Write the structure tokens for this entry.
Amino acid sequence: MTYEEWERSVPSVIREDSLWRVECYRLALFLADLAWKDVSTLARDRRTWRVADQLFRSAGNISSSIGEGYSRGTGKDRAKFYEYSLGSARESRDWYYKGRHVLEPSVVAHRLELCTCIIRLTITMIASERRTNRRIQPDR
């Protein structure tokens, strides 16, 4: 599935939220959906059960932490949750690398690249929030 195909499949209730404007969130949500399938592949091999479990948790946590941080009232609070997201993105990249013996090489390469893109975007978001520390009212 391409990103464009996936994006069209996301329910409008999610796409209409202001959080959807955050590219890093969209990519992280995409990664979580891709990881769902990858975890199924990893779980078929007894040697990678633990990798599958850890990958499922870390990949799913990236977008969740961004969403939680986005809803916080100050830059300091947002940065804290974006840091959690950063940690989960790096952890996901690590688990994808460890799963390379079971997953297709092209899948691993794509997921490592996607994780790295999310990491870069998250670092930028953290730096921005630390600089501004502005207070906002979350959208409802």
Notes: DSSP finds six helices and no strands in the chain.
